[in-house]
Each structure stands twice: as C-alpha cells, then as structure tokens.
Amino acid sequence: MLKEHPGWIVLKKLRGMCALYELEGRKVTITLDPRKDIVPSLIHESLHHWYPDWPESKVEKHERLIMNSLTSSQTKHILILLADVLNKKIYYRKTMKNKKS
C-alpha cells in the first residue's frame, strides 16, 4: 500500500489517538502521529482500509497478530518504505512549488 498510494500517508500530531483512517469519496488518508507507535498504527489503519466491514476488535486482534509475527528485519523494511514515501512526498511538494513560481 505504501508504494501504491504514497499520498495517503500524513504525519501529524493527533489528540487522543495514535492514527486516523479517513475515507472521503475515493480519497483515502492515513494520518499517523509521529509521537506514537508508527508501525502498529500503520498496520491498524491499513487493515481498516482493506477490511472496512471488520469491527474494531477484529482489526485490533489482527494488528497484534501481524506485529507479533514481524521480524526486526521486516519492521525495518516497513520503516524504510515509509521514510521513502514521506521523502518523495516532500520532494514532490517542493517541485510543485518551484513550478508555480
């Protein structure tokens, strides 16, 4: 999902939550609080996207199962992909600002 939809991921301080999944029409946004556990939050919100009919308890259960099964190397790879997506998003924004000038 990170590679397919890089624009979906936003880092922002949130109040009272670790992450937020928003669906407006066809636009999806996953907001992650950088002060919280980013990888579990990303997995949790991705599960909401992939399985919108699941109740919160089922999403939480599968988030835990996935997190407990990930190796350190796999977790590192997820963080590298996330950093790459966020870096490209920043680069894209800077490029678009330069084109408008």
Task: Report what the structure shows.
The chain is α+β, with helices and mostly antiparallel strands and 101 residues long. It has three helices and three strands. A three-stranded mixed sheet has the order 1-3-2. Helix 1 packs across helix 2 (56-69). The chain is globular and about 30 Å long. The mean pLDDT is 84.
Supply the key terms.
101 residues; alpha+beta; three-stranded mixed sheet; 3 helices; 3 strands; globular
Give the helix/strand layout:
Layout (H helix, E strand, L loop, with lengths): L8 E3 L7 E6 L2 E6 L5 H13 L5 H14 L2 H29 L1
Parallel strand pairs: 1-3
Antiparallel strand pairs: 2-3
Helix pairs in contact: 1-2
How would you sum up the global shape?
Answer: globular
Quote the distance from N terminus to C terminus: 32 Å
Count the beta strands.
Answer: 3
Number of helices: 3
Summarize the structure.
The chain contains 3 helices and 3 strands, in the order βββααα.
